[in-house]
Structure formats: C-alpha cells, structure tokens
Amino acid sequence: MNNSKYFFSVDLGATSGRTIIGRIEDDKFELEEITRFPNNLIIQGGHYYWDIYALYFEIIKGLKEVAHRHLDIVSIGIDTWGVDFVMIGDDNAILRNPRAYRDPITFQAMDDYLHNIISQKEVYDVTGIQFLNFNSLFQLYAMRKENNSALKHAKKILFVPDALSWMLTGQEVCEYTIASTSQLLNPRTKQLDDRLLASVGLDHSKFGRMVMPGTQIGVLTDEVQQLTGLGAVPVIAVAGHDTGSAVAAVPAKNEQFAYLSSGTWSLMGIETKDPIISSLSYERNFTNEGGIEGTTRFLKNICGMWLYERCRLEWPDEVRQLSHPELQGQAMQVEPFRSLINPDDQCFAAPQSMIGAIQQYCRDTHQPVPETPAEICRCIFDSLALRYKQVFQWLQEFSSSSPNTQHPSPINVLHIIGGGSLNKYLNQFTANSLGVNVLAGPQEGTAIGNIMLQAQAAGLVKDIWEMRRIIANSIDIVTYHPQNKAEWDVAYEKYLKVTNQ
C-alpha cells in the first residue's frame, strides 16, 4: 500500500482479534492486516472473564505500528462480539475485568427471570430478541442476585466495543447495534427499555448516550496520543456488533436479498426498515438486531459448521490430517440424503460426543446410521443446506407479508459472507436446496464493513448502496447456480418428515 489515507479497524472475536487498515481508491478498497492476537478467556474463582486491558494493549500496539510506518490514519473503528459489558466506577476506573458470556452464572438465570420477573412473551414483544441464557439482561439479573460488587458500584455500564472506545477517547456512548444484542433495547423506539432496565435495578443514566453507526465518538486522548505517536485521530462508532459490520459488507445490488453469515454459527436474515415482532416470529425464534442506517437485521441463528468442527475433533489422527477439501471431497462420493438431522435440535448444542449425538438422532428417527467420517460429513452438509432452505422460505414469507420490510418483491438471491463463503461444496448444496443463485464473498466481511462505515463518516461514500457497489467492485464473488432441483425437492420433503416440521 502506498502512503495515502487509511482507516484503522479493530475486529475482536471471542477467541482472537485483529487490527486492519483499509483504504478506498479508484472506486475500490484494499485491506492489510497489521496485527493478530489471541483473546484469552480467564477462569478465576469459578467465573469467566475477558482481559479488557490486554485487548486495549493490543489496540495500542496496532496503533503504534501504523504510527511507526507513518501512515495517515483518518479514523478508528471497533467491532466485537455481542452482549458483554464493562463497568466503570465513580473514579472513572474499570471496576474489574468484564464477565464473559460463557460464565456459568447465567445457566439458570434466564429461566429464573422469565418465571419470576417478566414473562418470555412480554420480553419478546418489547425486544424482538431471541432467548439466549447469556443475553445481557440475564447476565445483569444474575449479577444482581449474587450482590455483585462491581455492578453495585458502577457509574456506567459500557458494552465491550464502547468500553474500548472510552479507553481511547474518554467518551461514554452506547452504540445502537451492540446495544441491540442485550435484550434490553426496544427496536421500535431504538432506546433501552425502562421496564426491562428497572427489572434489573438500572436506569438510563447507567449507560452512555445512544449513538448510531457512523457517529464520531471523540478523538484519541492526550495519553493515547503520547502512547502511540499519533495525533487527535477520531474514533467512529461503526456497527459495534461484528455481525452488524459484516452485514454492512454484503455486496448486494438491490434490496431483494437474504444473507448468510457463515462460520461456526450461521446467521441467516434480511434487512428490514422496522422490526418484525409477531406471534409467528416469536414461535420461530427470529431475532431483531440493530443494523446500519436505522435498519433492523431480522435473522435466525442456525447451528452451522459447529457440527462438523466438533466431529473433526473426535475423528482419528489420520482423518484430522486430511485437508478440509480432501475430507469433504470424500463426503461427496457418499450416497446423498441417506441420513438427515435437524442441525438446531437441542441434542447438538453441547453433547459429550457430536458423532454419538448424530448417530443417536439417526437411530431415533429410524434412518441409516452414518459411521464413516465421509458419511457423517455428508449428513451434516445435506442437513445444513436443507435447514437453510427452511429458514430461507420463512424469510421469504416474512418479507412478502410484512409492511415493514424493504422488499416489494420476494427475495431471490442469497449472499454468503464470512469464512463459510469459501466452502464450495456447502455453497453449491445451498444453491441446489434453495433454488436460487448463491453469491459467495467477501470472506473478510466484518473488517470491510467496519472500514466502509468509517469511510461513510469521512464523506468518502454516500450510503450503504455505494459501499456495497465498491465492495462488489473490489472482490471476486463466486456464483453458485442451483442444480438438481427435483432431487433436492424430494430430499426437503424427507427432511421435514424426519425432523417433524
């Protein structure tokens, strides 16, 4: 990269993080990874924590590197995983490392809260968020019940990307997309809900001012400027939730699309003007999370390559030593649709043996039991593609029936982003199953969306559609056309019968 103007992206996942720079030039963008580092989970005293200071140190380290290279940084943006938060005391100090969503304190908290405080239907009617035991609402409820000292003395509660931005700028904000993961936010008003806050002993004063993606939070403090060698660089509130930034990078041409953020977990959804909160969305466990430019990401979580990854850990060394294309290539030689599962069945959430769980599901549903790694892999890929068809059809139904969607005609294409966009076998199966074209790419959706939102804040791009046009102009998008429609339609009927749906 030559010496032009760059945007600095911090992209933090639950296991690792990266700092990346990007620039836009000649109607295209370029990315370069600056640093990569682990995000270590700390287990102490029976609780799970994130090391917020280590993450701050890594951000400073990345900023030092760009200063050392004399790169002109226009702004900085941070995105992370959802739901977790940091508590700040009256003396403007972090009271302790933040609890991680995997902390066992939440295991019973959701059921306790929904049974004794506010009912499940009432909470969904306000938030439109799917129920996960680690959502911020239930974390706060559990912490209050345990008389948590940090919560008791917190002046401010900042979600993780907002806390890191505060460490850089000293400014306290509550970015909309990350707040939407908490199950505390009303997507209709786009504000935290008074009743839900009160139910865990809080009010609005405990949170920063609500800001939308693209808002400037502040500039680097004098302290950070001295640490890094940079000047008063602005810090921008991008879509602080990593999935929000990833969806911003979908290279769609118009509004008639669905997206699949594909990796260990799959998130399939559409963009809507307003939330879709109904008895049907509640029954089907869809969620309404904050998107860019005031949109809602109406989506469903699907158990993605988690099934395959867990099985791979159990297979013998000689199988694990095969590359993914080699193993998956063997699976393509196996009889299709021989055994099917519902990937989202509760038995696959955290089994002692994923292979055993898949085999038992097949026994229970009177199907041939997959034995070899190739048979198990084929079972997983067939089943995921058929589950994607089911959710895609639901999305088409919601899209065409709701007055709140942005889709005057049915969605007719699926964009796959994230690491799963490289999985050519599953992508082709998905196109076959859905019966629509599947467009795969970009792989680095989160970092691209983060940088594009900074570019919009800087006035380099006008809106989301210009962002998407530049992204499409900059990457190689692989198109998968549907094949063998009749065969896949028959398989879908079998899938529905096997899974009792």
Helix content: 25-40%
Task: Please state the overall shape, judged from the principal axes of the Cα atoms.
Answer: globular
Strand content: 15-25%
Strand tally is 21
Q: Name the structural class.
A: alpha/beta
In DSSP terms (H or I, runs of 4 or more residues), the helix count works out at 20
Lateral strand order in the biggest sheet:
17-18-16-15-19-20-21
Measured distance between first and last alpha carbons: 53 Å
Characterize the biggest β-sheet: 7 strands, mixed
Radius of gyration: 23 Å
Poorly predicted runs are none
Protein model, in words:
One of its GO terms (cellular component) is cytosol. The longest helix is centred in the C-terminal third of the chain and has 29 residues, at 373-401. Strands 17-18-16-15-19-20-21 form a seven-stranded mixed beta sheet, with helices on both faces. A six-stranded mixed beta sheet has the order 3-2-1-6-14-13, with helices on both faces. It is globular, with a radius of gyration of 23 Å. The N and C termini lie far apart (53 Å). With 501 residues, it is α/β, with parallel strands linked by helices.
